[in-house]
Design a protein that fits this description.
Layout: H1 2-7, H2 10-19, H3 24-31
Protein name: Transcriptional regulator
Organism: Salmonella enterica (Salmonella choleraesuis)
Length: 39
């Protein structure tokens, strides 16, 4: 999942975060394995 996140541009990361109701910073932590996804 980290490779997928890293392959996205900053703009794409922001769009993805908006679609799932989160922030790019939080998703970065999830994709890097530091946080568990929770909503």
């Amino acid at each position: 999942m980290k490779a997928y996140w890293d392959s996205l541009t900053k703009e794409q990361q922001g769009e993805l975060a908006g679609k799932v109701g989160s922030t790019p910073g939080y998703l970065r932590l999830v994709f890097n394995g530091y946080k568990k996804a929770s909503f």
